[in-house]
Design brief:
The protein has a 4-stranded antiparallel beta sheet with strand order 2-3-1-4, covered by helices on one side. The chain is of the alpha+beta class. The mean pLDDT is 92. The chain is 38% helix and 14% strand. The protein has a single domain (13-172), classed as Alpha-Beta Plaits.
């Protein structure tokens, strides 16, 4: 078995990717209100700031900043995933259990990356916002409703037509690693 080593930086800013087990599922967008409520509920219990986020049908990308002195992001993700799963069960969504008695909704692991500096942060924000186009879900970033892109536009930090230039697309918003 692979030995996963997580990086823990108190008050750190992290990029995450979380994925549903069924890569053909659309539960994250179909039940977007339940997902939003799960984030809000956990955020009340254990504070964090969402720097950028995009919700796709079966996975999400997110940049979180934790409070000073706090590095407990695994607890937050466990609670968000658990609350969302229980919300679906309450709605009557049929979810199967695995051999350990856990619901088979989420992949057990997730990807995390500590944001190293401003350039790294901006590169990951761009990646998050461009992701729906990358996956062929929309033709322009502005068309995808489940993204912090719209907040960035409202704040004036990104133009509404950001990411539409083919040169920008090829040069800046591809794979991160």
């Amino acid at each position: 078995m692979v030995n996963y080593r997580r990086v823990y930086i108190k008050g750190g800013t992290y990029f995450f990717t979380l994925t549903l087990k069924n890569r053909r599922s659309d539960y994250l967008v179909q039940y977007i209100n339940e997902l939003r409520e799960s984030f809000a509920y956990v955020k009340q219990q254990a504070s964090f700031d969402i720097v950028a986020i995009v919700i796709l049908p079966e996975h999400l990308h997110c940049i979180l900043t934790l409070p000073e002195g706090d590095d407990a992001y695994p607890i937050r993700w466990q609670k968000i995933k658990s609350r969302f799963t229980l919300s679906l069960k309450r709605l009557g969504v049929e979810l199967k259990k695995n051999k350990r008695g856990e619901y088979n909704l989420w992949q057990a692991r997730y990807w995390e990356h500590i944001i190293k500096d401003e350039e790294d942060l901006h590169r990951h924000i761009d990646y998050i916002h461009f992701n729906p186009v990358k996956h062929g879900l929309v033709e322009s970033v502005a068309q995808w409703p489940f993204s912090s892109f719209h907040r960035y536009v409202e704040e004036g930090s990104i133009e509404h037509n950001w990411g539409e230039s083919p040169v920008e697309t090829l040069c800046n918003y591809g794979e991160l690693y």
